[in-house]
Amino acid sequence: MSISITFLSPFARFLVPFTLQRKSKNLYTAILQRYMPSKILSVSYHKESTSPPQQLELDGWKATMKSRVQEEGDSAVSSNDDEDPLAATRELIEMWRLLGKEVPEHITEDELKIIMECPSKSSRKKYLKYLYVKEKLKKANKIKKEMKAAARVEFKNKLLETSEADKQQQNFLFLRLWDRNMDMAMGWKGAQAMQFGQPLVFDMVYENSMKRKELQNAVSQLLESEGCNRKDVDPFHIYFCNLKIDGAYQRELIKRYGEKWDKLLITATEKSYVDLFPKDSIIYLTADSPNVMTTFKHDKIYIVGSFVDRHMQPGASLANAKRLNLATECLPLDKYLQWDIGTKNLTLDQMIRILLCLKNTGNWEEALKFVPRRKHSGYVEIPQYSQEFIDRIKKVKTSNLFSKGSLNIHTQKKCLK
After folding, report:
1. Phi, psi for residue 392 in degrees, rounded to 5
2. By CB atoms within 10 Å of each CB, which of 87, 92, 193, 229 scores lowest?
């Protein structure tokens, strides 16, 4: 037996591959016959079979595969169409919030539409962060209001708990004015201003020249201006001219005021101020005007451009006034303030405070205290007497000297005679 193994061992490396190859071919044919479809004919790998291989139906197979792919694509498109893009965006934002990113908890449909209109992912993240910070500020303000309300209630309870003897011992110099009485007084002053007050016009024609955030800042300044005017002793009659119906300005104002918008003692109109007042009595206040305002004129109607000019082209209000052939003026900031650098643009609430102070006192130094100190380095020291007044005094003195000299000469001649 050992002799036969030793004799066949040199031929083993040649005989084994042929036998393995034969077995593997038989195995492949069995697998193909079992799993290939009936349309595709089985192919024999035996060398003894001399029949030609039948042609495979490749064109039919390709057509069926293409139809299946097309059906799958149509179903995917239909599923994408059925899905609401706003709901998908809301789910994405909710997922970001669960991951711990700076995303607000409550988002309106308008804000979702703005997020969908953002061109890039970074802009969406920036806008979401802005909404997140805004929501945090609202929550903080709400907590402060609740704390103030709780403190007010506690103070009222303490007052009620005091005895009658303690109340008699307290000497009140002034009577308490409740909020409703103050509101009634302010409302009465506003009604008087609407009938007899001097008009002050806010030009709302610049809403298309501002971005959304700038328009919101302008509306905040308008709310501050209206409140400051309502609390003043002698308020203006405020006009909102060129206010488009259902425009960006009106929507934002109604959103801020709510139900109080219809009860405001102001005049909001779509008409221009040129159609309401004569041009001779209109003065457009703009920082680009070459004419410096010297005194406050009570018989004139001042126009203030209602816009935030961070990205606007300079000189827009001056160009608008020139187009309408209106007189323009600017505040004398260089005369009273050391204004070294920076633009001389003020906010709307600062402007109305300056105009109210000028209307009541006529003092520029008192009125320009409402200009923030960060914008100038101090007040200009104005001399007590101007140079023209000094020259006039010198002329009067010299004329008196000449007259005295002539009198002395005349008296000397009389004495000599």
Report:
1. -65, -40
2. 87
